[in-house]
What does this fold into?
Amino acid sequence: MENTTNTNQLNKAAWDAYQEDYFKFHLMAYENFYESFTNGGSPWLDDFWINMLGDVKGLKLLVIPCGVDCMQAFSWHNLGARVTACDISPKAIEIAGANAKKMNLSLDFTVDDMQTLETISDNEFDIIFAMYPCWVQDFNEACRNWRRVLKPGGKLLLNATHPIMDCIEATENGLIVNDDYNNFVPVIDDNFGGTPLADRFGGWSADLPSVCNFYRISDLLNAICDAGFIIKKTHESKNETQSNIYLSKLPEDFTVLAVK
It folds into this structure.
């Protein structure tokens, strides 16, 4: 694949093809999906995210990417934020918007690339809640645009799978290092296989390429600083979801709070 290839657009096509089945998998996995939000709950936010951001009532909050499930966006809405949910996939926004209407939740929706945010004006949001930087081809450009759309004093809360987890494989006898943390290249998949949620329900695949990028902790923090943000706090969460004793000793994800 040539360096000039826009991998965000490749990923857009792959994810767009997956969205309808992806949401079906969500309904199969979470039987109370609709009730959890219509009852005013915010079940898909970690406590440390809420503590890092503080009270969000009345604040304009952008969720990128929101995904077809929009779980974090719906949760921030139920905490009182004025939420705009953004995703590069038109199908994700179509389904998420219909679900918001079904549940009588008042959110705004926009189809956009989280790297460029071309549909969003400067100084528009109080908070950006961003996830999955692995789907961004140029994280430095993304950070510059995230800062652009934030109001002065606005906050960025970025959550990512801890990159060390992408370099190792757990066995019953220990951990195997499969990839070089300091020389990790993007993972190119000629047949997009969806997410682990699909694997729980028989699997899914499409004859479409996808590209998953890799950023070290230092890459993430340096890009945020170079964009002009001031880093206020970071958090590495304990791996609670893995049954393997070795993985349980490592962090599962990484979160950083930064201010414009």
Observations:
- The domain at 7-259 is CATH 3.40.50.150 (Rossmann fold).
